[in-house]
Amino acid sequence: MRRRASLVLLALAVFCAALAPLLRWYAFPRLAKIPAGQYQEMVLEAENATLLDYTTMRPRKVSRVTIVQTLKGNVEASEKVERTAGRDVVVWDGLSHVVGPDGKMVSSIPERYIFDAHTQAPVHADGEHVDHDPVKREGIEFKWPFLTERRDYTYFDAQTRTSAPIHYRGTRTFRGLEVYYFEQTIPWTRVPVPKKMPVSGVTPESVRKAGTTRWYTTRRMFWVDPTTGAPVNGEEIHREELRGGSLLGGRDRVTAFAGHVRMREDYIDHTVALVTSQRTPILLMTSWLPWGFVTLSAALLALALLLEARGRRPARGGTGRPADGSGSGGGS
Known about the structure:
Elements: H1 2-31, E1 39-53, E2 58-73, H2 75-85, E3 89-99, E4 105-116, E5 129-130, E6 133-134, E7 153-157, E8 162-174, E9 177-191, H3 204-209, E10 213-224, E11 231-243, E12 253-263, H4 265-312
Helix pairs in contact: 1-4
């Protein structure tokens, strides 16, 4: 009976030992993915910012500029791309809507971001755009991959329509979470004029005809939860200028926007709570369950060996002689 039990325990130990790497390296990459219909909203603010008044073409100090960023999963579009891509795809229809302290629109830039639901790598398909200009992204945008690594990544900048390294700058603690801090600096670069302008009569075409160009630079900072790959905080030190042309009345350049953009406190609290809850299933598949199965396998193996050893041990008090009592040295 003991030998049979030890064999059963040994089989269970082998099963648990095999299950641990299967769960981590086979099941997790296939099960962990971004939902196709996910919706996110983020509000950022720049206090005491500089903003261009397009009616006078003069920059002025304002109390606050608000940026509302939305990302809406387009399920119908993702299913269409999946039929040709042959993999799970997410399509995010995004909008970055900027308003001044009076609530009036400063700019409103839509974009479509298409990426692999498991790896967050970009997927190139019809409809990928920024402000309706076709783009071909390289690298990530908005979100890092699951199990983010301590290294630099390539990050897509929507203003310039180009990709550049975003650098890993160390591990930090943010609101009780251990996070990776990333930073990217985009130098002064000429960028397109938004198609939707804050005042009537001013269009990208009229700006181009006036010989005026738009330039931009930013220092971008993200605090990223390495388990989910989701940023829990983001900031930008952002500057835009209009340069040259007849619109500026003889001036070489004017500031269109300058400010330190920060995520609003209530959205930070909501994001940290959301990310904390999303960490649990990922940690189960990548750490807790695999290591639990390894520990259980070791315990079952030890128990199996113990039972096998006890099964081979002679019974206590036995003489080791044949059961019929015969043996050497019998008397006459």
